[in-house]
Amino acid sequence: PLTPMTPMTPVTPASESSGIVPQLQNIVSTVNLACKLDLKNIALHARNAEYNPKRFAAVIMRIREPRTTALIFSSGKMVCTGAKSEEQSRLAARKYARVVQKLGFPAKFLDFKIQNMVGSCDVRFPIRLEGLVLTHQQFSSYEPELFPGLIYRMVKPRIVLLIFVSGKVVLTGAKERSEIYEAFENIYPILKGFKKAS
Amino acid sequence: GAGKTPTLGGGFHANLGKESRAQTLQNGKRQIHHLGNQLQLNQHCLDTAFNFFKMAVSKHLTRGRKMTHVIAACLYLVCRTEGTPHMLLDLSDLLQVNVYVLGKTFLLLARELCINAPAIDPCLYIPRFAHMLEFGDKNHEVSMTALRLLQRMKRDWMHTGRRPSGLCGAALLVAARMHDFRRTVKEVIRVVKVCESTLRKRLTEFEDTPTSQLTIDEFMKIDLEEECDPPSFTAGQKKLKIQQLEKALSKKLEDFEGEISSYQDEIEIELENSRPKAKGVFANFTKDDSIEDNTSSVLGEEEAEDEELEAAANHLNKDFYNELHEKDRVKKIEDGECKNGNEALVRPPALESLLGPLPTAASLGITESIKECISTKDREPGENTGDGELDLSGIDDSEIDRYILNETEAQIKAELWMKENADYLKEQKEKEARIAKEKELGIYKEHKPKKSAKKREPIQASTAGEAIEKMLEQKKISSKINYNVLRDLNSKGSNTPKKEDDSTDDSTNTKKLSRRKSIASRNIANPVNSVGKR
């Protein structure tokens, strides 16, 4: 395969992998319960639900295991956030659906989809952000007046990374776990290039 | 002839698209100049900003955004590319808008226009802040010292990820003190626009670097080789180390506890051997029969479940007992039991009487898991059931039931909720009543939230000319019409009614003209005829 003249991803030299695995911190998923819901009814009969129609048009429900939060809308659609793995997110969503079922609604479980995954890790060395923003200007945005980290928008895979001077990296925007790992493997050699000489 | 009779009142949509664009650009230019002058930007900067604005408009970036935000973003972009010492905070102060809102617009603009400004150098701000701090003759010297301090801070990795103004403030404060100026922290922060705690933090960080230990003279001459790590990195490393230490410490504690408990055991054994036999109440517990009954009653709850489950529960209970055995034995007053338990673990004594209700498999929450492990795997690897039915595997119903309120609880919550949301409920009722009434009257319109068009006041005018003027003012039909001429056409008519004869040649034209103006000037008898070509 030919290497393109203007590579869309930063070129990674053939070196060994970093040995660091990003940890997943948050998963956001959606599911369709496929039935109209009476939010007032749900809020008044569930222990862990809050509903402020003036502020937001959905019931906010929480469960302890897996520790997650769900937004349940009257159309029957639901958003589940806070899980640390795909399986946990699915289990949590099913638990919420079960609660809704027990409250008397014919809830189904259609089109479960993971919408966003957030991971984080530590490369263990300080990173020169000013240098990175100079050489990778088409991908990076670094405004210390607004945010202390560098915002790196990787094209393939389409992930946004927040890179901090302390060496901590946050990766977000993934639909699959592999995207996070791939993005980190792509960025690690670049970050090594801007490692502080100690 | 028939031809196209351009109507005055209507038909102005033809040129509306270009008019709107021109107007937007004009408006933008005006605002840029107004804001730019407040920032004292030169003409070149203002022109560049206007160019950015034109690009933004052509890319439709102004849609859905406040014009002022876009203008501010264009100006700040110019400031960055030209390297002027203006901060986003200055713009935010002038416009009284949250700096992060402006920042969002600015980032978007920079990304869409593919303009990447280099990172801000805090050295840019020194002359500006030094001037505002009024060092008089020594301004240059203080600035130089401050610059040198900043260079040192940069080498010590203090500036990455921080607001440049905060660093400037710290550098200027130290420089001022070095030159015997008593500038207080409050004065500096008023100029630099950071918080007092931020400034103190920067000073503390600088204090931690080896350079802070040099004297003033040494500092001006020597440059230390070593570069420090960024403060956030050192803090992170420290935290990591503390966590590791804690882990090691807790592990050591466990080891010690083990040692202590083994000593306890030995002491206990010695005590046992020298203790007299149990009498009275406790004597019952030493008998084997009662013990058996007790254990079977404890385990009897699980009779309904599989034997394997029972075996597993037994095993767990036994393990649990062993653990407890070693830790709590000293506290037990049922000496007889302990003695018995010590002898033979085959028949565990009544644990229930030892420590209250036993942890059953159910209360440990592993009933389901155990069942799952024991039963054959019927489930397919792919969990997607075609019809969207909720897959209940792995969900403990009792756990779910705990999330649902009972009758009394639900009533109480309902009361509280009604009180909290009384206003909202009232609004909803009124809305429904309104909709019902309108439905009855047959005038109910589906989309209510749409804003109605601006209602214009009816024009009050004494003459037709005035009426036309006022209408044109309001409607702003076209910039191509020379309003002066239009005005004069009418006024001339009213002044010279005698010129009727002259215009007979142009009668056809004037007739056309008269038709054009008939809307507003129907009441005027003559003047139209006297209109000639100007």
TrEMBL record, chain A:
Assign the protein's first listed, main location to one coarse class.
nucleus
* Protein name (record): TATA-box-binding protein
Query: What's a Gene Ontology MF term here?
Result: DNA binding
Per UniProt, the keywords (alphabetical) are: DNA-binding, Nucleus, Transcription
Phylogenetic placement of the source organism? Eukaryota, Metazoa, Chordata, Craniata, Vertebrata
Which source organism does the UniProt entry give?
Aptenodytes forsteri
For this record, the Gene Ontology CC terms, alphabetical, are: nucleus
Query: Which InterPro entries would you find in this protein's record?
Result: TBP (IPR000814), TBP_CS (IPR030491), TBP_dom_sf (IPR012295), TBP_eukaryotic (IPR033710)
- Family (UniProt): Belongs to the TBP family.
Subcellular localization(s) per the UniProt record: Nucleus
Q: Which HAMAP family match?
A: TATA_bind_prot_arch (MF_00408)
Q: Name one Pfam family in it.
A: TBP
| Gene Ontology terms describing biological process | DNA-templated transcription initiation
UniProtKB/TrEMBL annotation, chain B:
Q: Where in the cell is it found?
A: Nucleus
Polar residues compositional bias: what residue ranges?
Answer: 520-534
Q: Which InterPro entries match?
A: BRF1_TBP-bd_dom, Cyclin-like_dom, Cyclin-like_sf, TFIIB, TFIIB_cyclin
Give a Gene Ontology cellular component term annotated to this protein: nucleus
Give a yes or no for keyword Transcription in this entry. Answer: yes
Q: Which residues form the Cyclin-like domain?
A: 30-111, 124-208
Keywords, A to Z, come to:
Activator, Coiled coil, Metal-binding, Nucleus, Phosphoprotein, Transcription, Transcription regulation, Zinc, Zinc-finger
Q: Which domain of life is it from?
A: Eukaryota
Q: What are the GO MF terms of this UniProt record?
A: RNA polymerase III general transcription initiation factor activity; RNA polymerase III type 3 promoter sequence-specific DNA binding; TBP-class protein binding; zinc ion binding
Biased composition annotated in UniProt, kind: Basic and acidic residues: 436-446
Q: Which SMART domains match?
A: CYCLIN
Q: Which Pfam families match?
A: BRF1, TFIIB
Coiled-coil-forming residues are 246-273
Q: Name one GO biological process term.
A: transcription preinitiation complex assembly
Q: Where is this region: Disordered?
A: 436-465, 488-534
Per UniProt, subunit arrangement is: TFIIIB comprises at least the TATA-binding protein (TBP) and the B-related factor 1 (BRF1/TFIIIB90). Interacts with BDP1. Interacts with MAF1.
Q: Record's family?
A: Belongs to the TFIIB family.
The name under which this protein is listed is Transcription factor IIIB 90 kDa subunit
